[in-house]
Amino acid sequence: MIRLLLAEDQGMMRGALALLLGLEPDFEIVAQVGDGDEIVPRALEARPDVALLDIELPGRSGLDAAAALREELPGCHVLILTTFGRPGYLRRAMEAGASGFLVKDGPVEELAVAVRRVLAGERVIDPGLAAAALSAGPNPLTPRERDVLAAAVDGATVADIAARVHLSPATVRNYLSSAIGKTQTRNRMEAVRAARQNGWL
Length: 201
Prior knowledge:
phosphoprotein
């Protein structure tokens, strides 16, 4: 039996996925979580062969959890399953050690095949997204620029951002200015929007 962990914050979607995948004769759903912070503890407890992770979850993101699983449970293969087919997300997922990346609008039979392929050691990537990622190029933002933009998501002041990321206001202004230039936007909120749309945040 192939043991699966499902991480999806929408209860109805999680239940439907569990039901459909549970119909496969060689699949067993051993854990279901709705919060990113629960992924690693439940995986360590349930020891799944494959973890199906959404990206945007309450708490820790699926991408961060994928990286943590690679460290703490290297035998568990990660398949990212998301609504947001953004090229930057695909790159970050691969960097985090994910074995696959699919968007949620595909048929469940395709997902079942992908799970088996990932377990067999293959990489499974949505072909349209792979092409988009290649044409989009790498993420131009440094980790610090990403941190500062992420802290600016809710319209925080420079002083608030500085406190959150433990930098001086002058340094925060420099990082914001650099991020605005790299995203070719006019202000920090546009830079945040552009970075999110590309999956860089």
